[in-house]
Amino acid sequence: QVQLVESGGGLVQPGGSLRLSCAASGTIFSIYVMGWYRQAPGKQRELVATITSGGSTKYADSVKGRFTISRDNAKNTVYLQMNSLKPEDTAVYYCNAPRVATLTEVLDAWGQGTLVTVSS
Asked: Residue 19: CB partners within 8 Å, gap ≥ 6?
């Protein structure tokens, strides 16, 4: 089985910073792309950022210039560095690997979610 184990999240003041981590565990052959989603109260889940195994990144316009996604391929871990946080960044953040390949199958794996609250 494949699991995504997240760490980080919590309460931070506006303008502050926070780093989220997500480690994929299990018998994994490859993870081409990993990303972060978030879901704010009363809103649809949205894609925040993605990164490929080669380091290509994409960001939502709302976080571009403030957030940085990175990964450690050897550890199957993805990070989200969040700077200049705003109250509207408040959401449950989910780690996602839409095509994580084991030796026998390809899975759409999700983390359990971690709450980020930006408030003074």
From this structure: 8, 79, 80, 81, 82
Contacts of residue 101, defined as CB under 8 A and 6 or more positions apart, other chains included, come to 28, 29, 30, 31, 32, 107
DSSP assignment letter at 45: -
pLDDT at 73: 86
The residues, any chain, with a CB within 8 Å of residue 35's CB and separated by 6 or more, are 47, 48, 49, 50, 51, 69, 78, 95, 96, 97, 98
- Cα 36 to Cα 13: distance, rounded to the nearest angstrom: 21
CB 52 within 8 A of CB 73: no
Cα–Cα dist 75/42, whole Å: 34
pLDDT digits (tens, 9 = 90+) for 36-84: 999 998 999 999 999 999 999 999 999 999 999 999 988 899 999 999 9
Measure the CA–CA gap between 62 and 26, rounded to whole angstroms. 33
Average of per-residue pLDDT values in the chain: 95
Percent above pLDDT 90 for the chain: 92
